[in-house]
Specification:
This protein is an alpha/beta fold and about 180 residues long. Helices cover about 35% and strands about 20% of the residues. It contains seven helices and seven strands; from the N terminus they run αβαβααβαβββαβα. Helix 2 links the parallel strand 1 and strand 2. Helix 2 runs parallel beside helix 7. The protein is globular and about 50 Å long.
Length: about 180
């Protein structure tokens, strides 16, 4: 096996990305503290052509050196919007016809492997703060909650890892 050169990967430009069809998915970050996590979410969102990233509360916005370090320019290709209150982002998405799903451990959550997005429907996933998770007030506004099953001694994953898993699984299930 020969490792491919960067010139052989046929990557699209940021301008081509902007014009390309997107996965009907918005990623909402609810008070995410780490700028490196924010950048990583942008990078995963770029990889799967996510519609947009909504940055809420204390979540930092580009341009920031720390975001760029992990996003590697994806903060320029992926559309983003800032909201002071995550509740306002959720309400806007719902008014635009999105089904909003918090990624959280709650009573009655749907395990990720069992979640079945409806064909033709738009989705948003809300990812929470590294310590406190998704705010209860935000969970209350969501249409449902998705949970990633875990089998070790820890009860959570890093928010950027969670984003990568969810974005990949949604892209796979939504047939990108």
């Amino acid at each position: 096996m020969r490792k491919l050169k960067i010139t052989e990967l046929n990557r699209i430009s940021a301008e081509e990305f902007k014009a390309a069809d997107k996965l009907p998915l918005v990623v909402v970050l609810d008070h995410v503290r780490s700028l490196y996590n924010v950048g990583s979410v942008f990078r995963s969102s770029d990889a799967f052509r996510v519609q947009a990233v909504y940055l809420c509360g204390i979540t930092a916005t580009p341009p920031q050196v720390e975001i760029h370090k992990t996003a590697l320019g994806a903060e320029d290709s992926v559309d983003w919007k800032y909201f002071e209150r995550t509740q306002d982002a959720v309400n806007e998405l719902k008014s635009q016809g999105y089904s909003v799903q918090a990624v959280e451990q709650v009573e009655g959550s749907v395990m990720l492997q069992s979640f079945r997005p409806e064909e033709g429907k738009k989705y948003a996933i809300v990812l929470g703060n590294e310590v406190k998770g998704v705010q209860q007030e935000v969970v209350d506004l969501c249409d449902g909650c998705i949970e990633i099953p875990q089998f070790g001694t820890k009860h959570s994953l890093n928010v950027s890892v969670t984003a990568g898993i969810l974005i990949w699984e949604m892209a796979r299930k939504m047939k990108l």
